[in-house]
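Researcher: Here's the sequence for the chain we discussed earlier.
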Amino acid sequence: MATATISSCTGSTLLQPISDIISLPIDQVNFVVCQLFALLTAFWFRLYLHPSKTSTFVRHVVATLLGFYLALFCFGWYALHFLIQSGITYSMMIFSGVENMHKYCFVAALGYLSFCQITRVYVFDYGLYSADFTGPMMIITQKITSLAFEIHDGMARRGEQLTPSQRSLAVRRMPSLLEYLSYNCNFMGILAGPTCSYKDYISFIEGTAYHQKHLEANGKENGKYKQSDPSPETDVIHKLAVCAVSLLVYLTVSRRFTVERNVDDVFTASTPVYTQVLYLYLSMLATRPKYYFVWTLADAINNAAGFGFNGYNKDGSPRWDLISNLRIVDIEFATSFKMFLDNWNIQTALWLKRVCYERCPYNPTAATFILSAMWHGVYPGYYITFLTGILMTLAARALRHNVRQYFLASSTHKLIYDVITWAGTQIAICYTVVPFVLLSVESSLKFYKSWYFCLHVACLLLVMVLPVKPRHKRNSHQENSLQQAHPQGRPAVQNSHTATDNNCNQKQKAT
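Model: Thanks. This is the structure I predict for it:
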């Protein structure tokens, strides 16, 4: 009786037989099945509810109702938290005024998310059912806060006060309640995101996204390939293939290389150091395909619905990476801490940059990592990871700024530098992220003690010894370099605000 009560509150048990057969928790089975249903629905949405065939109102209503249905299937009546969070913040947007609305929405959305995370982890016992309804709330929190800042930029600040990225994203009218709920809870992104800008989403719903990208494209280069509605099918098939491989690797490899073994007393006492280092890398490598599967499938769902078009490549093929969340090759072959972070959970990194890094007047690097920890949840391991990440980022920035130029004289030296920095980056990432997986203070400190806190000490020494220019001086130097590269004052044109964000990442988050 207790199990039935819990299940009726938290989600559907219709798929319990499948869960028993494949030995996966019911919440994970529900998630995958709902995402596959969303994928099929996305094709139907693009073909039969195309903007040329139906009204914007209908597209908003259908996207919202389907999203809430999927949420109810996965999380039961806990899905009401999605509406409560959206309702509270929308009321603040309407009644508090645009001058301070962004601050109130930021505090309310993040505070409500934190309240739900605390009660889920430390107050309620979910027993046999472990569905985390706060996962979708994390995405909704990103959307709420992003939109609040975009409305503030568009309605309360002058254009000259904004960065190019802020200017392109600024929203100059208050959304209706339907538009707001559709943006936050549509079926394409309700379960796994990714976050997108409000203007991009509205352009997709209204059917103007393709036209805007055509106008941004170079007419001579891409004109003969232009069409009103490029097909996403090739990209969707490719991303589904990536999903299949990622899921297969995760199900077969992750069970052989468990992260918990890194803190096993027998393993650490009887294994040589070089073997421990190799096992650490393999165990953390084995955890990543899970994220590759979830984020790539979410991207494919949006593409199947017609959302995510980002212009054309030089060969005229359409690009469907507007809201992509990761670049797997760049992650696995990253040669710097920055390069790894820039290609991992891309939309969350952009959210952190837009709402925190660009706007925080004091120590934006530390503030951004702390906000990321708060957003992820209340497990101590999250905070240990992101506090360690601050130190790693500062040390990587200092090392890169003081050492890299000595290896650029020849291709051989550059190759040696890349190999060394690849190995160093992968070990540093694994070392940093272990507490994120272990979650508890005891296990996290046990791991770091077995490594004698060696990378913490090394990074602290690098930060203390190697000089790094303040951020405003680095930006000034980079602006001068750009002016020298473009003496006529015409920098290379970016085809979208996403490209502008990526360029800003290169300038402002260099490590």
